[in-house]
Protein backbone atom coordinates (compact mmCIF):
# COMPACT_ATOMS: atom_id res chain seq x y z
CA UNK A 1 0.00 0.00 0.00
CA UNK A 2 1.20 3.43 -0.82
CA UNK A 3 -0.98 6.31 0.24
CA UNK A 4 0.37 9.65 -0.95
CA UNK A 5 -1.14 11.28 2.17
CA UNK A 6 1.06 11.01 5.25
CA UNK A 7 -0.46 10.14 8.61
CA UNK A 8 1.63 12.89 10.23
CA UNK A 9 0.17 15.50 7.88
CA UNK A 10 -3.48 15.09 8.91
CA UNK A 11 -5.30 15.98 12.11
CA UNK A 12 -8.82 15.41 13.33
CA UNK A 13 -10.80 17.93 11.29
CA UNK A 14 -8.55 17.86 8.20
CA UNK A 15 -10.91 18.03 5.20
CA UNK A 16 -10.78 15.76 2.17
CA UNK A 17 -11.15 17.70 -1.11
CA UNK A 18 -14.89 17.55 -1.98
CA UNK A 19 -16.08 15.80 -5.13
CA UNK A 20 -19.14 15.81 -7.34
CA UNK A 21 -20.34 12.85 -9.36
CA UNK A 22 -22.95 12.93 -12.08
CA UNK A 23 -25.22 9.87 -12.17
CA UNK A 24 -27.06 9.10 -15.39
CA UNK A 25 -29.51 6.31 -16.09
CA UNK A 26 -27.02 4.55 -18.33
CA UNK A 27 -24.61 4.26 -15.39
CA UNK A 28 -27.27 2.51 -13.34
CA UNK A 29 -27.79 0.07 -16.21
CA UNK A 30 -24.05 -0.56 -16.36
CA UNK A 31 -23.96 -1.11 -12.63
CA UNK A 32 -26.94 -3.52 -12.81
CA UNK A 33 -24.92 -5.58 -15.27
CA UNK A 34 -21.56 -5.30 -13.51
CA UNK A 35 -22.85 -6.41 -10.12
CA UNK A 36 -25.80 -8.58 -11.29
CA UNK A 37 -28.33 -6.57 -9.28
CA UNK A 38 -31.32 -6.17 -11.57
CA UNK A 39 -33.76 -5.00 -8.88
CA UNK A 40 -36.44 -3.14 -10.84
CA UNK A 41 -36.18 0.07 -8.80
CA UNK A 42 -32.75 0.68 -10.40
CA UNK A 43 -33.87 0.62 -14.02
CA UNK A 44 -37.67 0.55 -14.29
CA UNK A 45 -39.77 3.63 -13.55
CA UNK A 46 -42.99 1.64 -13.29
CA UNK A 47 -41.57 -0.66 -10.60
CA UNK A 48 -39.93 2.25 -8.75
CA UNK A 49 -43.21 4.15 -8.61
CA UNK A 50 -45.16 1.03 -7.59
CA UNK A 51 -43.20 0.92 -4.32
CA UNK A 52 -43.69 4.61 -3.60
CA UNK A 53 -40.44 5.99 -5.02
CA UNK A 54 -40.59 9.18 -7.13
CA UNK A 55 -38.49 7.62 -9.91
CA UNK A 56 -35.66 5.15 -10.58
CA UNK A 57 -33.04 5.22 -7.80
CA UNK A 58 -29.32 4.44 -7.68
CA UNK A 59 -28.08 1.26 -5.98
CA UNK A 60 -26.86 1.84 -2.44
CA UNK A 61 -23.64 0.07 -3.36
CA UNK A 62 -23.19 2.40 -6.37
CA UNK A 63 -23.71 5.44 -4.14
CA UNK A 64 -21.19 4.34 -1.55
CA UNK A 65 -18.77 3.26 -4.30
CA UNK A 66 -18.80 6.87 -5.57
CA UNK A 67 -18.38 8.27 -2.06
CA UNK A 68 -15.46 5.95 -1.28
CA UNK A 69 -13.88 6.95 -4.59
CA UNK A 70 -13.37 10.42 -3.18
CA UNK A 71 -11.16 8.88 -0.49
CA UNK A 72 -9.22 6.57 -2.81
CA UNK A 73 -8.59 9.47 -5.22
CA UNK A 74 -7.33 11.58 -2.31
CA UNK A 75 -4.92 8.98 -0.94
CA UNK A 76 -4.00 7.68 -4.40
CA UNK A 77 -4.23 3.98 -3.59
CA UNK A 78 -7.66 2.30 -3.50
CA UNK A 79 -6.07 -0.71 -1.78
CA UNK A 80 -5.37 1.49 1.24
CA UNK A 81 -9.14 1.79 1.82
CA UNK A 82 -9.60 -0.77 4.59
CA UNK A 83 -13.35 -0.54 4.96
CA UNK A 84 -16.47 1.57 5.03
CA UNK A 85 -19.93 1.70 6.52
CA UNK A 86 -23.03 3.56 5.42
CA UNK A 87 -26.75 3.76 5.98
CA UNK A 88 -28.79 4.66 2.92
CA UNK A 89 -31.22 7.12 4.50
CA UNK A 90 -32.74 8.70 1.39
CA UNK A 91 -32.86 7.46 -2.21
CA UNK A 92 -30.69 8.96 -4.96
CA UNK A 93 -33.39 9.70 -7.51
CA UNK A 94 -32.12 9.53 -11.11
CA UNK A 95 -34.54 11.04 -13.64
CA UNK A 96 -34.66 9.90 -17.25
CA UNK A 97 -33.01 12.96 -18.78
CA UNK A 98 -29.56 14.13 -19.86
CA UNK A 99 -28.75 15.67 -16.48
CA UNK A 100 -29.48 12.73 -14.18
CA UNK A 101 -28.58 13.23 -10.53
CA UNK A 102 -25.59 14.83 -8.84
CA UNK A 103 -23.85 13.36 -5.82
CA UNK A 104 -21.97 15.85 -3.65
CA UNK A 105 -19.43 14.19 -1.38
CA UNK A 106 -17.53 15.88 1.44
CA UNK A 107 -15.25 14.31 4.00
CA UNK A 108 -13.24 15.09 7.08
CA UNK A 109 -10.79 13.19 9.27
CA UNK A 110 -12.80 12.12 12.29
CA UNK A 111 -10.33 9.98 14.18
CA UNK A 112 -6.68 8.93 14.04
CA UNK A 113 -6.16 5.27 14.90
CA UNK A 114 -3.02 3.19 15.40
CA UNK A 115 -0.97 1.70 12.56
CA UNK A 116 -1.36 4.91 10.50
CA UNK A 117 -5.07 4.31 10.07
CA UNK A 118 -7.62 7.13 10.00
CA UNK A 119 -11.42 7.21 10.07
CA UNK A 120 -12.99 9.68 7.65
CA UNK A 121 -16.56 10.86 8.07
CA UNK A 122 -18.31 11.51 4.77
CA UNK A 123 -21.35 13.57 3.89
CA UNK A 124 -23.17 12.54 0.72
CA UNK A 125 -25.97 14.72 -0.65
CA UNK A 126 -28.13 14.78 -3.74
CA UNK A 127 -30.54 17.67 -4.39
CA UNK A 128 -29.45 19.12 -1.03
CA UNK A 129 -30.79 16.03 0.74
CA UNK A 130 -28.50 13.79 2.74
CA UNK A 131 -28.68 10.40 1.01
CA UNK A 132 -26.24 8.53 3.23
CA UNK A 133 -25.96 8.78 7.00
CA UNK A 134 -23.20 7.53 9.28
CA UNK A 135 -20.83 7.17 6.31
CA UNK A 136 -17.33 6.34 7.52
CA UNK A 137 -14.28 5.11 5.66
CA UNK A 138 -11.22 3.63 7.31
CA UNK A 139 -7.99 4.06 5.37
CA UNK A 140 -4.30 3.50 5.95
CA UNK A 141 -2.06 6.48 5.27
CA UNK A 142 1.68 6.33 4.79
CA UNK B 1 -46.33 -12.64 4.81
CA UNK B 2 -43.82 -11.86 7.54
CA UNK B 3 -40.28 -13.12 7.14
CA UNK B 4 -39.53 -16.40 8.88
CA UNK B 5 -37.54 -15.77 12.09
CA UNK B 6 -36.37 -19.41 12.05
CA UNK B 7 -33.77 -18.23 9.52
CA UNK B 8 -31.94 -16.18 12.17
CA UNK B 9 -28.55 -17.81 12.71
CA UNK B 10 -28.71 -19.97 9.60
CA UNK B 11 -25.55 -20.11 7.56
CA UNK B 12 -24.67 -21.40 4.13
CA UNK B 13 -21.49 -21.69 2.13
CA UNK B 14 -20.80 -22.95 -1.37
CA UNK B 15 -18.08 -25.10 -2.84
CA UNK B 16 -18.18 -23.15 -6.09
CA UNK B 17 -15.19 -20.86 -6.37
CA UNK B 18 -15.47 -17.25 -7.52
CA UNK B 19 -12.50 -16.60 -9.80
CA UNK B 20 -11.60 -12.92 -9.92
CA UNK B 21 -10.54 -11.91 -13.41
CA UNK B 22 -8.91 -8.76 -14.74
CA UNK B 23 -11.80 -8.30 -17.15
CA UNK B 24 -14.47 -8.48 -14.41
CA UNK B 25 -12.58 -5.94 -12.34
CA UNK B 26 -12.35 -3.69 -15.39
CA UNK B 27 -16.10 -4.04 -16.07
CA UNK B 28 -16.96 -3.30 -12.46
CA UNK B 29 -14.65 -0.28 -12.25
CA UNK B 30 -16.04 1.06 -15.52
CA UNK B 31 -19.59 0.69 -14.18
CA UNK B 32 -18.77 2.78 -11.12
CA UNK B 33 -16.95 5.33 -13.27
CA UNK B 34 -13.90 4.91 -11.05
CA UNK B 35 -11.03 4.35 -13.44
CA UNK B 36 -8.08 4.36 -11.05
CA UNK B 37 -5.25 2.66 -13.01
CA UNK B 38 -4.67 0.12 -10.19
CA UNK B 39 -7.91 -1.52 -11.38
CA UNK B 40 -6.83 -1.88 -14.99
CA UNK B 41 -3.05 -1.67 -15.27
CA UNK B 42 -1.10 -4.49 -13.62
CA UNK B 43 2.09 -2.41 -13.76
CA UNK B 44 0.52 0.35 -11.67
CA UNK B 45 -0.95 -2.21 -9.25
CA UNK B 46 2.47 -3.87 -8.85
CA UNK B 47 4.11 -0.49 -8.24
CA UNK B 48 1.68 -0.08 -5.33
CA UNK B 49 2.73 -3.48 -3.98
CA UNK B 50 -0.07 -5.74 -5.24
CA UNK B 51 0.42 -8.99 -7.19
CA UNK B 52 -2.02 -7.96 -9.96
CA UNK B 53 -4.78 -5.41 -10.65
CA UNK B 54 -6.94 -4.85 -7.55
CA UNK B 55 -10.70 -4.53 -7.27
CA UNK B 56 -12.53 -1.40 -6.04
CA UNK B 57 -13.45 -1.56 -2.32
CA UNK B 58 -17.15 -2.22 -3.09
CA UNK B 59 -16.43 -5.09 -5.52
CA UNK B 60 -16.86 -7.79 -2.88
CA UNK B 61 -20.51 -6.83 -2.34
CA UNK B 62 -21.26 -8.31 -5.75
CA UNK B 63 -20.64 -11.87 -4.53
CA UNK B 64 -23.98 -11.57 -2.71
CA UNK B 65 -25.79 -11.97 -6.01
CA UNK B 66 -23.91 -15.19 -6.75
CA UNK B 67 -23.82 -16.81 -3.32
CA UNK B 68 -25.54 -14.74 -0.65
CA UNK B 69 -29.15 -14.42 -1.76
CA UNK B 70 -30.27 -17.94 -0.86
CA UNK B 71 -32.80 -16.92 1.81
CA UNK B 72 -34.56 -14.75 -0.79
CA UNK B 73 -34.99 -17.74 -3.10
CA UNK B 74 -36.15 -20.08 -0.33
CA UNK B 75 -39.95 -20.04 -0.24
CA UNK B 76 -39.99 -20.79 3.49
CA UNK B 77 -38.19 -17.49 4.25
CA UNK B 78 -41.29 -15.67 3.05
CA UNK B 79 -39.72 -13.03 0.82
CA UNK B 80 -42.04 -12.40 -2.09
CA UNK B 81 -40.97 -11.02 -5.44
CA UNK B 82 -43.12 -7.96 -4.76
CA UNK B 83 -42.74 -5.56 -3.13
CA UNK B 84 -39.05 -5.33 -3.92
CA UNK B 85 -36.51 -4.94 -1.15
CA UNK B 86 -34.63 -1.73 -0.42
CA UNK B 87 -30.99 -1.61 0.64
CA UNK B 88 -30.71 -0.01 4.09
CA UNK B 89 -27.09 -0.27 5.17
CA UNK B 90 -23.74 -1.76 4.26
CA UNK B 91 -20.44 -2.30 6.02
CA UNK B 92 -17.31 -3.61 4.32
CA UNK B 93 -14.12 -4.63 6.10
CA UNK B 94 -11.12 -5.58 3.97
CA UNK B 95 -8.26 -7.59 5.41
CA UNK B 96 -6.50 -7.01 2.10
CA UNK B 97 -7.62 -5.81 -1.34
CA UNK B 98 -9.12 -8.39 -3.70
CA UNK B 99 -6.89 -8.85 -6.77
CA UNK B 100 -7.14 -10.59 -10.13
CA UNK B 101 -6.36 -14.27 -9.76
CA UNK B 102 -8.01 -14.57 -6.35
CA UNK B 103 -10.10 -17.71 -5.92
CA UNK B 104 -12.78 -16.80 -3.41
CA UNK B 105 -15.38 -18.59 -1.32
CA UNK B 106 -18.23 -16.94 0.54
CA UNK B 107 -20.16 -17.99 3.64
CA UNK B 108 -23.37 -16.12 4.48
CA UNK B 109 -25.17 -16.04 7.82
CA UNK B 110 -28.56 -14.47 8.55
CA UNK B 111 -27.86 -12.35 11.64
CA UNK B 112 -31.24 -10.89 12.38
CA UNK B 113 -34.79 -10.30 11.17
CA UNK B 114 -36.73 -7.52 12.93
CA UNK B 115 -39.80 -5.32 12.53
CA UNK B 116 -39.23 -1.63 11.71
CA UNK B 117 -42.69 -0.08 11.91
CA UNK B 118 -44.69 -1.47 8.99
CA UNK B 119 -41.53 -2.90 7.40
CA UNK B 120 -39.12 -5.67 8.28
CA UNK B 121 -35.38 -5.59 8.01
CA UNK B 122 -32.90 -8.42 7.81
CA UNK B 123 -29.16 -8.37 8.19
CA UNK B 124 -26.75 -10.83 6.61
CA UNK B 125 -23.01 -11.19 7.03
CA UNK B 126 -20.91 -12.47 4.13
CA UNK B 127 -17.45 -13.78 4.99
CA UNK B 128 -15.19 -13.94 1.95
CA UNK B 129 -11.96 -15.92 2.01
CA UNK B 130 -9.62 -17.55 -0.47
CA UNK B 131 -9.76 -21.28 -1.19
CA UNK B 132 -6.50 -21.46 0.78
CA UNK B 133 -8.37 -20.15 3.83
CA UNK B 134 -7.04 -16.57 3.94
CA UNK B 135 -9.67 -14.10 5.18
CA UNK B 136 -10.17 -11.38 2.58
CA UNK B 137 -13.29 -9.41 3.38
CA UNK B 138 -16.42 -9.22 5.54
CA UNK B 139 -19.57 -7.61 4.15
CA UNK B 140 -22.61 -6.85 6.30
CA UNK B 141 -25.78 -5.85 4.47
CA UNK B 142 -29.09 -4.71 5.95
CA UNK B 143 -32.08 -4.93 3.65
CA UNK B 144 -35.63 -3.68 4.18
CA UNK B 145 -38.65 -5.67 3.14
CA UNK B 146 -41.31 -2.99 2.70
CA UNK B 147 -44.69 -3.37 4.32
CA UNK B 148 -44.34 -6.99 5.38
CA UNK B 149 -44.31 -6.59 9.20
CA UNK B 150 -47.15 -8.26 11.06
CA UNK B 151 -48.65 -9.77 7.93
CA UNK B 152 -50.13 -13.24 8.50
CA UNK B 153 -48.92 -16.13 6.37
CA UNK B 154 -51.19 -17.62 3.75
Number of helices of chain A: 3
Number of domains of chain A: 1
CATH architecture field of chain A? Roll
Unreliable stretches of chain B, pLDDT < 50, 5 or more residues? Answer: none
What's the total count of β strands of chain A?
5
Average pLDDT taken over every residue of chain A = 96
Question: How many E-type strands of chain B?
Answer: 6
Task: Describe the overall structure.
The complex is a heterodimer of chains A (142) and B (154). With 142 residues, chain A is of the alpha+beta class. Chain A has a single domain (7-140), classed as Thiol Ester Dehydrase, Chain A. Chain A contains three helices and five strands, in the order E-H-H-H-E-E-E-E. Chain A has helices at 25-35, 45-50, 60-75; strands spanning 15-23, 81-88, 101-112, 117-126, 129-140. A five-stranded antiparallel β-sheet of chain A has the order 1-3-4-5-2. In chain A, strand 4 (117-126) and strand 5 form a beta hairpin. The radius of gyration of chain A is 16 Å and the shape is elongated. The termini of chain A are close together. Chain B is α+β, with helices and mostly antiparallel strands. Chain B has a domain at 5-20 and 57-145: Hotdog Thioesterase (Thiol Ester Dehydrase, Chain A), CATH 3.10.129. Chain B is 18% helix and 34% strand. Chain B has helices at residues 22-32, 42-47, 63-68, 70-73, and strands at residues 11-13, 18-19, 85-94, 103-116, 119-130, 135-145. In chain B, strands 1, 2, 3, 4, 5 and 6 form a six-stranded antiparallel β-sheet that branches. The longest helix of chain B has 11 residues, at 22-32. Chain B starts with 10 loop residues before the first strand and ends in a 9-residue tail after the last strand. The mean pLDDT of chain B is 92. Classes of the chains: A alpha+beta (142), B alpha+beta (154). Strand 2 of chain A pairs antiparallel with strand 3 of chain B, so a sheet runs across the interface.
Amino acid sequence: MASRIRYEDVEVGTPVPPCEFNVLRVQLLRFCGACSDYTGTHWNERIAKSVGLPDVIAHGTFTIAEAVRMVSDWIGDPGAVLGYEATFCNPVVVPDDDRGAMLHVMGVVEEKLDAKRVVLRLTVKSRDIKVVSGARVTARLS
Amino acid sequence: MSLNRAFIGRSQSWDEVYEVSREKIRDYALATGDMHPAYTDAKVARSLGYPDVIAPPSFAVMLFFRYGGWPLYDGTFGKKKAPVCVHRAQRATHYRPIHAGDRLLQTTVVNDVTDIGPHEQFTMTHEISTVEGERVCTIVNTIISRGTAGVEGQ
